[in-house]
Design a protein that fits this description.
The structure is a homodimer of 257-residue chains. Chain A has 257 residues and is an alpha/beta fold. Helix content of chain A is 28%, strand content 25%. Chain A is built from seven helices and 13 strands. Chain A has helices at residues 22-30, 38-44, 61-73, 91-100, 120-128, 148-160, 178-187, and strands spanning 6-11, 33-37, 52-56, 77-82, 111-115, 129-130, 136-140, 164-168, 195-200, 208-213, 226-230, 236-239, 245-248. In chain A, the strands form three sheets. Chain A has a five-stranded parallel beta sheet, sandwiched between helices. Chain A has a five-stranded mixed beta sheet with strand order 7-8-11-9-10, with helices on both faces. In chain A, helix 2 (38-44) links the parallel strand 2 and strand 3. In chain A, helix 3 (61-73) crosses helix 4 (91-100) and helix 6 packs parallel to helix 7 (178-187). The longest helix of chain A is centred in the first third of the chain and has 13 residues, at 61-73. Chain A is globular, with a radius of gyration of 20 Å. At the A-B interface, helix 1, helix 4, helix 5, strand 6 and strand 7 of A face helix 1, helix 4, helix 5, strand 6 and strand 7 of B. Strand 7 of chain A pairs antiparallel with strand 7 (136-140) of chain B, so a sheet runs across the interface.
Chain lengths: 257, 257
């Protein structure tokens, strides 16, 4: 079959151009249309040409996905931008859902490519050492599309099995109490001294990476542009000779704790 | 303080140069020494200059980390290469451990940078849709440095809480039975029809991505260069109009199952 047009769901990575894959840059460079949430479009920066830019609201993921697929079905070369990795709590799922739900069968002839990116947890970990060096879970704290009791059950299971936790979408003005509750749930299984990394805007202007503890983490210090990494029972923190703070989870897990 | 030399722990991404970050390429382009496991050095490909290449065995991570730090402590500009993301079951942890255990205090004056990369699970997910579109866990099945009962407890907890699972280091000649046992443990909580993605050498020559089910997964089809993604109870599979198979985990999780 021949394709109508094509759609790349592109992960820009955490923001810094130095972390954006060549494939992402190449697709942006030849796109006729770029679709995305306004701040993500700004991350794209200078483009060699002048594609049509289609800015959307952050919350309307399903509409944005259908819009991008619709443009591609008309024969255009479309890039839909995501920050981080499009497959991790981002736009790839919305696009594949729209393809699956495609009752009008308009989208099946679009050539779809998911262009992976560096996800926020990887970038945050890189800045502080290797907190994800052992088994870990990525959990979105947003209960907009899943019941809060599912979030809590997952936090409890992951904390109980001593996974490191990477918490995405930790807080927003519409979800003010969930992070505090999540930290309480994790604290049932893990000590107050457990290292916690708060990584905000990694790879962007204003980047701030703070190391604290589970007991000292204040949700007021966290916003929606922060990813939290909560250590396991083995995660360690130290300062090197230069005074730089490192956090890592050792490769070796003890047989007896 | 002034630094002696510097060390970049560089994630090459899954293999394809189109997925390697500009920062990784830049550090490789100016390194005096490149250290790594032989096949990863081959992934680096052509370099504009001729740094010293130091090839090592894959299993000697701690020695490799100390060797790379030692070179940098002598004032050299060293790159230690990892595939994927160096922070995910790779070399970043070994380097930070060596820094922490640095009794001779040789390493504290090395300027260390972790250069993040696209991890294997992200690349595998991108090839097949969006199986990681909801909460997920990354688990290494290697029991070389952790007891197998810890692996099993984590698999049981993650499967019970309905996480998607990304399984790294699934099998090797020294660890022949662990994958089969892991699939049995997951199968206690999840149906035989659960979609499973076997992604081998994504982004490299010979890439193969196969979609099967939990009940049909045969460990004989898996090797150490494969990452497995095991779906949650909501993960779906379908073929589009062109016959292409997609796997995704919807953004919405039902309140009642």
């Amino acid at each position: 079959m021949t394709y109508a047009g094509r759609l790349a769901v592109v992960g820009l990575g955490p923001g810094a151009p130095a972390w954006r894959s060549p494939e992402a840059s190449e697709r942006l460079a030849c796109a006729t249309d770029v679709v995305g949430y306004g701040p993500y479009l700004q991350l794209v920066g200078e483009l060699a040409h002048a594609p049509m830019l289609h800015e959307s609201d952050n919350r309307q993921e399903a509409e944005r996905a259908r819009f991008a697929l619709g443009l591609a079905a008309e024969g255009r070369d479309v890039v839909l931008v995501s920050s981080g990795d499009p497959g991790v709590f981002a736009m790839a799922t919305a696009v594949i859902e729209a393809l699956h739900d495609d009752e009008a069968a308009d989208f099946g002839r679009v050539e779809i490519t998911i262009v992976p990116g560096i996800t926020a947890a990887s970038a945050a970990a890189a800045r502080i050492g290797a907190p994800l060096g052992h088994d870990f879970c990525c959990i979105s704290l947003s209960d907009v599309l899943k019941p809060w009791d599912v979030v809590e059950a997952r936090l409890r299971a992951a904390a109980g099995a001593d996974f490191v936790l990477a918490l995405y979408n930790p807080i927003s003005s519409q979800r003010p109490w969930q992070l505090g509750r999540a930290l309480d749930v994790v604290g049932e299984a893990r000590g107050a001294e457990t290292p916690v990394v708060l990584a905000r805007d990694v790879g962007r202007p204003g980047e701030a990476v703070v190391v604290t503890t589970l007991g000292e983490t204040d949700p007021a210090d966290v916003d929606m542009r922060t990813v939290l990494i909560v250590g396991s029972s083995t995660t360690r923190r130290f300062d090197d000779l230069s005074g730089r703070t490192w956090v890592y989870t050792p490769r070796t897990y003890p047989a007896e704790r």
